[in-house]
Amino acid sequence: MRAEFKEKKAVSIDLLTLDEKNPRLGFAKDQDSVLARMIAYGQPFFALAKDIAESGLSIEHVVVQKDGNKYRVRDGNRRISALKLLNRPHLCPDKATRERFTKLAKTAEENGNLLGKVDCMVGSSEEAINAYIWRAHTGENGGVGRSGWESLQQEFYQISIGEKGGYWRAAKLMLWADENDLEVPDKFSITTLGRFFNAAKNIKLLGFEFDEDDNIFPTVPLFTAVVIVKKIIADIESGCVHVKRGDTPGTLSLMLAENRDLYIAAIRHEMKLDTVGAVDPVPGGNGAGARPASSPTGGQPGENGSGPDVGGGKPGSGPAQADASGAGGVDVKGGKNGTTPATHSSLRKKYVTRALHPLEMPTSEQKVRDIYKELQTVEKCPIAGMMLVRAFVESTFRKFVRVNELMEEGRIDVASIKDMLKFIRKKLVEGGVLVEGKGSDLFLKVELMEQNSIVTIPTMQKFIHSEMFNPKDADVIKTWDEFYHFLKLLWQLLAAKA
Predict the structure, then answer these.
(1) Residues contacting residue 234 through CB under 8 Å, at least 6 positions apart
(2) β-bridge pairing 241-242 and 252-253
(3) Over its length of 498 residues, how does the chain's per-residue pLDDT go in tens digits?
């Protein structure tokens, strides 16, 4: 193994890039995110920085891989992160951390340990580097030494190098959770999750599938998927579910297959996934995981207390009984003219269809009508599709804010989608349109949108502005479906106010 590494002396830390697929931290989108996550790692990282400032860099190799005219750090990311921040405390995202590293930098300079260059070992092959890293990670030593990987981090590492550990499906779910702004504890028990999530049938029952490239995606609306995963993480972290033998009061052991089935059934029941036509949390709607049904379901017009009706028909009513419209005149039949998709959303060719997503805007709103019309023609152009979705959402929000005078006129044209959403939500809650406990599904959807627990808004930002994230057709469809019922409600309210 030694022969596959060559020493390179005095490499500038400016030429060293941090590993954005560091299994210790999850996968980050850029260098700033790596540093932010390293700082968030807490006391072990600060202990290492303090040790470097006082005693100098350890003799352990910094293992790097040639990457153009720079070198990607494959082993030693904590040490190089600490050196980067000691040399440039202004890179710290918050004032307290900047002050902390400024003091440590002074200590390092006094002790002759403020290094701008380091000796590195350059690996000759990916295989050699991977083998070295895997063998090297044992023992944390209070944060000063090498930090041992928890089982979840080991699974992350396997994924990062294109391999599959014993619980790779469960690990990919946790990466999905991290990407969608859900907190995944460092010592999360991936083995407990893997007990039921590695089975294909259970994955589908919990609202997820894997594509041919083994990428995970939700088959239920994004809001539903976020809530499901958040619950699973909380239940495992609290010990409510576990893999110990025997159950203590208030807990459930997943050692037994029947208990796993019981837990999954309970989640499906809580999220209404076991009810025909009730997959989408928005009353009367269907999202990414909705399936065609011969008996659409929905609420009685006006019964959800959420203003203009967005659904209709009694549960279990057949096609002949499903013609009734709510106060907003919305037909709830499936297929061509109704709100229930006739095909699974993942099979849609068009991102937006008039038949499945009927929206009415006044003729005076020519620009937003044109955007809506173009959305109905676009397919297989995901970047253009995502930009049009964003433009429609932004235009709808701006119109609602302006008509209801929710912001000062001078601020409206420069306000972000998220800022406008805050004012819109406040208006709808104060007006009794969104009421917790009555039609609370839509209330929760908007609540989570504002809190960024649901990722529609930040995801649009990433897809449009980040070079690392490119949308797929399914991303555009899911983003539109997430916003559709809320957009429809806003235009109905605007029509009522006109």
Answers:
(1) 240
(2) parallel
(3) 678 899 999 999 999 999 998 887 778 889 999 999 999 888 889 999 999 999 999 888 899 999 999 999 999 999 999 999 999 999 998 899 999 999 999 999 999 999 999 999 999 898 888 888 877 765 554 554 456 678 888 888 889 888 888 899 999 999 999 888 888 887 899 999 998 888 889 999 999 999 988 999 999 998 899 999 999 999 999 888 888 877 677 788 888 888 888 899 889 988 888 764 433 333 333 333 333 333 333 333 333 333 333 333 333 333 333 232 233 333 323 333 333 344 445 567 888 988 888 999 999 999 999 999 999 999 889 889 888 998 999 999 999 999 999 999 989 988 888 889 989 999 998 988 888 764 456 777 777 676 654 345 555 665 665 555 567 888 788 888 888 889 999 999 999 988
The answer to whether 397 and 417 have CB atoms below 8 angstroms apart is yes
Q: How large is the C-alpha radius of gyration of the chain?
A: 26
Q: Are 62 and 119 in contact (CB under 8 A)?
A: yes
Q: Contact, 87 vs 114, CB < 8 A?
A: yes
What is the Cα 292 distance to its own chain's centre? Answer: 27
Report the alpha-carbon distance of residue 484 to residue 221 in Å, rounded.
12
87 vs 5: CA distance, rounded Å: 28
Distance (Å, whole) CA 206 – CA 117 = 50
Stretch (H or E) spanning 450: helix 440-451
